[in-house]
Specification:
Number of domains of chain A: 2
Structural class of chain A: mainly alpha
Oligomer: heterodimer
CATH superfamily of chain B: MetI-like
Number of strands of chain A: 2
CATH architecture of the largest domain in chain A: Orthogonal Bundle
CATH superfamily of the largest domain in chain A: MetI-like
Largest sheet of chain B: none
Order of helices and strands of chain B: HHHHHHHHHHHHHHH
Number of helices of chain A: 14
Strand order of the largest sheet of chain A: 1-2
Helix content of chain B: over 70%
CATH class of the largest domain in chain A: Mainly Alpha
Radius of gyration of chain B: 26 Å
Structural class of chain B: mainly alpha
Number of domains of chain B: 1
Strand content of chain B: under 5%
Distance between the termini of chain A: 44 Å
Order of helices and strands of chain A: HHHHHHHHHHHHHEEH
CATH class of chain B: Mainly Alpha
Number of strands of chain B: 0
Number of helices of chain B: 15
Helix content of chain A: over 70%
Distance between the termini of chain B: 32 Å
Radius of gyration of chain A: 24 Å
CATH topology of chain B: MetI-like fold
CATH topology of the largest domain in chain A: MetI-like fold
Largest sheet of chain A: 2 strands, antiparallel
CATH architecture of chain B: Orthogonal Bundle
């Protein structure tokens, strides 16, 4: 009996050890962001201080500098505008597109849907050279509007795919009943399918927004003017003077930009997974 | 339904009549999405192919056709061959590490324990947070002077301050660092994929196997693994595609250095095509991604289809 207890205790210890390992592995860099952003510079740049906690009292000086002396609020605003515009473009195109592919185009729709989704896998690092010519042709170089034009190239495929799944999951009888009652095909889409798939649409809005926040390659390629940068690019590349990194400010900015994305991902994770894996799980 | 639409052939309603044909309305609804993707993915893709066959630079936008000479140029360049090799090491190193961490993480998170929801939320973070921002945090952790990793190693007595590793300044350590950061970014995604697969395995199948005498490992590798392979394959396609073509981690952490030890295709294409303005050679470098992408995507699509039958 005691032997079994010892084995059990060992098992429990190793299990919680594994939990702790994954927790530290995943979360430590973010703990590091938090602690760096609240540390005074004297505490930060010291090789003798224990780095894991505050040796001097925490300070808000990095946040103050970030908001008052840098373009951080401009970048926040830019990201917000980019996110809203891209979301609008994506919804207007992907919503009818996905409905059509799910309901109206039959076997060809299936193939076309897979085709559109595969374009999501065409990487920015293959397209950035020609797209930068296209952007220059449109007169949008060095402007955040270039990102509003380009970001839908990956949000539309991604969201069309997600929405196709949501529309397919709706019982087709509801739309059929509406049509029998005198509704047109288009009316059935607008008045029945859209309201019923609101949870799916919300998921798409959230993920379009987070995808625009996460994007880095196109922003880096198209934009060098500081006041046009979105927040991710601004924080990662613009808080460096010469070869001096403003680590407190960089970490503070990264922290502020990360929090909304982290929350959104956790809330919508399950829908995201069922969306991208499509029919692979039955 | 088509029959109902057909039974009202009033001339005044002719426009509505057309819109009530499923195929017509369907084509109209899907047209904007298809056009957007064709114009801004399809056309640029063809442009990239043409650039790689031309003498185009931003200083000499001549579009002169030069055949395969750009490809010949870059293949002869030893730095490019190093870059190609690095890209494979970077991709497969981080995918294998990420998958192993993902599999074990999924096994851990499968078991109920107090606080599991919170642990899962925190473990998702590396994948959710914009990679450029997380990479900058890692860069700070790998700092040559104030590295918290080195501080810990010194405090534990593993190394001394004078021979503490310079993570991003030594070729092999720099490659290891970018691989670790990419695996770190990818493993929560792998966990989530494994979890989604495992929870989709019907409990009665597992019960039947247990009754037939299958132990934990046997259930794991002879029942669960084969059943979740399709979904893992989808996850792996994403991982490989996004890693093989990645630019941000290398760009922010090492700039391809030291001495091209961490230069990868995406980064090299960016340096040549955008920073140096040599668009044709940059496009040729980027196009080297294409065969791998095609192979991976086609293989996985076929594999998934076969599994479903």
């Amino acid at each position: 009996m005691p032997r079994a207890t010892v084995t059990k205790a060992l098992q429990e210890t190793s299990f919680y050890g594994a939990v702790a390992f994954f927790l530290v592995l995943a979360a430590f860099p973010f703990y590091w962001m938090v602690i760096t952003s609240f540390k005074s510079n004297a505490d930060l740049y010291s090789v003798t201080h224990i780095p894991f906690w505050f040796n001097d009292p925490p300070t808000l000086e990095h946040f103050r500098y970030l908001f008052e002396q840098t373009l951080f609020t401009t970048w926040l605003l830019n990201s917000l505008i980019i996110g809203l515009c891209v979301t609008a473009i994506t919804l207007v195109t992907a919503l009818p597109g996905a409905y059509s592919l799910a309901r109206m185009t039959g076997r060809n729709g299936e193939a076309l849907g897979i085709g559109i989704f595969l374009t999501y896998l065409v990487p920015p690092t293959l397209l950035f050279l020609p797209l930068s010519r296209v952007i220059a042709g449109l007169g949008l170089q060095n402007s955040m509007w270039s990102l509003i034009v380009v970001y839908p190239t990956f949000t539309i495929p991604f969201c069309t795919w997600l929405l196709m799944g949501f529309f397919k999951a709706l019982p087709v009888e509801i739309e059929e009943a509406a049509i029998v009652d005198g509704c047109s095909l288009f009316g059935a889409f607008v008045k029945m399918a859209i309201p019923l798939s609101l949870p799916g649409i919300l998921t798409v809005v959230i993920f379009t927004f987070t995808l625009t926040l996460q994007e880095f390659v196109y922003a880096l390629t198209f934009i060098s003017a500081s006041d046009q940068k979105p927040i991710t690019l601004g924080v990662a590349t613009d808080l460096i003077r010469g070869d001096i990194f403003y680590w407190g400010e960089i970490m503070a900015g990264a922290l502020i930009a990360s929090i909304p994305v982290a929350i959104a991902y956790n809330l919508f994770l399950d829908r995201f997974i069922s969306g991208i894996t499509g029919g692979a799980v039955k | 339904m088509v029959a109902i639409a057909d039974s009202v052939p009033k001339p005044a309603a002719r426009f509505r009549f057309i819109l009530d044909r499923r195929d017509v309305l369907g084509s109209i609804l899907v047209a904007p999405a298809v056009l957007y993707v064709l114009l801004l993915v399809g056309v640029p893709f063809l442009m990239a192919v043409y650039y790689s066959l031309s003498a185009y630079t931003i200083y000499d936008p001549s579009w002169r056709f030069v055949g395969l000479s750009n490809f010949a140029d870059i293949v002869e360049n030893p730095v490019f061959r190093q870059t190609l090799y690095n890209t494979f090491i970077f991709t497969f190193g981080s995918q294998i590490l990420g998958l192993v961490l993902g599999k074990f993480g999924a096994l851990v998170l499968l078991r109920p324990f107090p606080g599991r929801k919170l642990v899962r939320a925190l473990v998702i973070l590396p994948w959710a947070v914009p990679i450029a921002l997380a990479t900058v945090a890692w860069e700070w952790m790998f700092d040559s002077l104030y590295s918290v990793i080195n501080w810990t190693l010194i405090a534990l007595g593993i190394v001394t301050r004078s021979d503490a590793p310079n993570w991003l300044g030594t070729p092999h350590l720099a490659m290891l660092s970018v691989i670790v950061v990419n695996a770190w970014r990818f493993f929560p995604f792998a966990i989530v994929i494994f979890l989604a697969g495992i929870t989709a395995v019907p409990q009665d199948v597992l019960d039947a196997a247990t009754v037939d005498g299958a132990g934990f490992w046997r259930r794991n590798y002879q029942i669960i693994m084969p059943m979740i392979l399709p979904i893992v394959a989808v996850g792996l396609v994403f991982g490989i595609v996004f890693t093989f073509t990645d630019l941000s981690i290398v760009f922010l952490m090492t700039m391809g250095g030291p001495v091209d030890a961490t230069s990868v295709l995406g980064f090299s294409g960016f340096q040549t095509g955008i920073n140096s303005g040599d668009v044709s050679h940059g496009a040729a470098i980027s196009l080297f991604m294409l065969p791998v992408l095609l192979v991976v995507v086609v293989a996985m699509l076929r594999f998934i289809r076969r599994r479903e039958i």
